[in-house]
Amino acid sequence: MTRIPSDVRDTIEKAIYLPMTISILNKDLGNIQQGPFKLKDPYLRLIEQALKLAQRDLYNIKNDLRRRKVKVHEVSRDEAFTMYSFIYEGYEEEHNYFNPRIRNQVAALLEHYLFAAKA
C-alpha cells in the first residue's frame, strides 16, 4: 500500500512525463527548422508556445515537489518497464511504469500543450 497521497502522486507523474514532453517538442522544433517546409513560421510559433507552456508547468511542479520535500529518481529501465523511486516524508517507494503507458501519457500531454498553444 502506498503512503503517497493521490494528489502528490499525480504531481510526481507529471514531473516524470513533462521532461519527456519538452524533449520531444525541442526535437520537433529542430526538425521543423531543418525541414523542407515552405512556411515554417506558423509551425515554429505553435511549438514554441507549447514549449513555453510545458516549461512553465514543469517549473511549477518542481517547485511544488521541492516545497513538499519529494524526490523522484529513475532507478532502472528495460524494454517494457521503467522503475522510479519516490521519497516522500521519509518513506521510499519504488514504482514500475509500463513504457507504452508512459508514451501514451506523453502523447496526451503533447496534444494538450499544442491545443492550448493554439488557443
What order do the helices and strands come in, and which of them pair?
Blueprint: H1 6-34, H2 41-67, E1 71-77, E2 81-88, E3 91-98, H3 99-118
Antiparallel strand pairs: 1-2, 2-3
Helix pairs in contact: 1-2, 1-3, 2-3
InterPro entries: YhjD-like
Describe the protein.
- InterPro entries: YhjD-like.
- Pfam families: YhjD (PF26325).
- This protein is an alpha+beta fold.
- The protein has one domain (6-118).
- 64% of the residues lie in helices and 19% in strands.
- The protein has helices at residues 6-34, 41-67, 99-118; strands spanning 71-77, 81-88, 91-98.
- A hairpin with a 2-residue loop joins strand 2 (81-88) and strand 3 (91-98).
- Helix 1 packs antiparallel against helix 2 (41-67) and helix 2 (41-67) packs across helix 3 (99-118).
- The longest helix is centred in the N-terminal third of the chain and has 29 residues, at 6-34.
- The radius of gyration is 16 Å and the shape is elongated.
- The model has no long low-confidence stretch (mean pLDDT 95).
Count up the domains. 1
Mean pLDDT: 95
Structural class: alpha+beta
Number of strands: 3
Strand content: 15-25%
Helix content estimate = 55-70%
| Biggest beta-sheet profile | 3 strands, antiparallel
Unreliable runs: none
Spatially, the strands of the biggest sheet line up as 1-2-3
Q: What integer value in Å does the Rg equal?
A: 16 Å
The count of helical stretches stands at: 3
**Which oligomeric state applies?**
single chain
Global outline = elongated
Distance between the termini: 41 Å
